Amino acid sequence: MRKTINVGLVGYKFMGKAHSNAFQRIGMFFDPDADICMKAICGRDEAWVKSVAAKYGWQGYETDWEKLVQRDDIDVIDITAPSNVHKEIAIAAAQAGKHVFCEKPLALNLADAREITAAVKKYGVKNQIGFNYRFCPAVKLAKQMIENGKLGRIFHFRGLYLQDWIIDPEFPKVWRLDKKVAGSGSLGDLGAHVIDIARYLVGDIARVVGMSKTFITERPLVEKMTGLSGKAAENAPRGIVDVDDATMFLGEFENGALMTLEATRFAQGHKNAMSFEINGEKGSIKFEFERMNELIYFNADDEEGLQGYRTIQVSEGVHPYWSHWWPAGHVIGYEHTFVHELYEFIQCIANDKEATPDFVDGEKCSQVIEAVEKSIEERRWIEVNSL
Ligand SMILES: NC(=O)c1ccc[n+]([C@@H]2O[C@H](COP(=O)([O-])OP(=O)(O)OC[C@H]3O[C@@H](n4cnc5c(N)ncnc54)[C@H](O)[C@@H]3O)[C@@H](O)[C@H]2O)c1
Q1: Please, are residues 8 and 78 in contact by the beta-carbon 8 Å criterion?
Q2: What pLDDT, in 10s, does the model give residues 303-344?
Q3: If exposure means fewest CB atoms within 10 Å of the residue's CB, which of 114, 138, 149, 371 is most exposed?
Q4: Which residue ranges form the domains of the chain, and what is each CATH number?
Q5: What ligand 1 atom has the least distance to the C-alpha of 131?
Q6: Considering only CA atoms, which residue is closest to atom 15 of ligand 1?
Q7: Whose CA is nearest to atom 19 of ligand 1?
């Protein structure tokens, strides 16, 4: 008999909306091997959660995640709340036998990430982490090209994640600037995505050395914690910013390739500029998220005199996920990455397969983050596996 997978979602703001939209779209554009039932969305502010539940497509709502996790009519818990609550919710969900999807970074730190991974292993539930940039068709194409040997031996990975939303010193101390809620700053928020892409495309990272800076060390406090935007009252008291505004690090992969990574919220003019370049012996590829339907490719085997970087428009039926969307060239966007990742998770549950990227990938990303932090503190190279 065809299965129905009942979902409960924690969080209703930025990621809560992105995931709700994705669950609504999956059945419309894909043919998953189970039906999806959007049972309940959870948030602490009853007026808010009630007002968005129906709009986002949920049958009902809860104001306490513990109640949501204990409900017998829920199979999957999807966590889109900040990092400080990931561990408690994920472990409780696994204990209750629910499959768990969790937004990145997996946890506040490596120790917590390890506890979460141990719990999903112990209770045998499917798990996936929200590294959605893996699910851009162009990134999937890059993966296929690397696996098919198009780049040959890889020498370099160069990753950037640049934003500019907190340059104003009067911008308040939102939760992303509070270590006890976010775990880390630009490194854990932005860098985590690029670390995951580096691991996905090139392999595990062996050693790192980094530097970081907090340019604005005190900011006005807001009464209610907000995410990416907010306004403090005039003459609001100030609080210490205890996370990094910008982090850069060098690394070496286990396969000998070299990497650089820069994550910053102080790159004036850049809004969500996640990009990477990979150079191999036979060719190079470049990707910029704000032009996510393109992959730039240099093929060293092209005819002499006609060589150069070419732009592949990754929006034809032959490209990953494309057959589910529009006619060739009718491009897709950010929200589609969530449709792809959650479709894959639903397929894994429906067909009893392990999901990817899973919490082990989340844990390995946290291990690299912590190695970078340790290298900054101790001003030396750190072996990632020593942690
Ligand atoms: N994959 C991506 O591209 C991406 C983008 C942004 C954020 N994120 C991640 O998603 C997570 C959430 O970020 P966001 O930008 O959506 O934050 P947000 O501030 O917009 O939303 C957070 C939500 O969590 C809810 N929440 C907080 N504590 C709660 C609790 N104890 N119980 C129930 N609900 C609670 C808040 O009420 C809010 O609805 C973070 O882990 C962040 O790193 C991922």
Answers
A1: yes
A2: 999 999 999 999 999 999 999 999 999 999 999 999 999 999
A3: 149
A4: 3-132 (3.40.50.720), 135-332+365-378 (3.30.360.10)
A5: 1
A6: 14
A7: 227
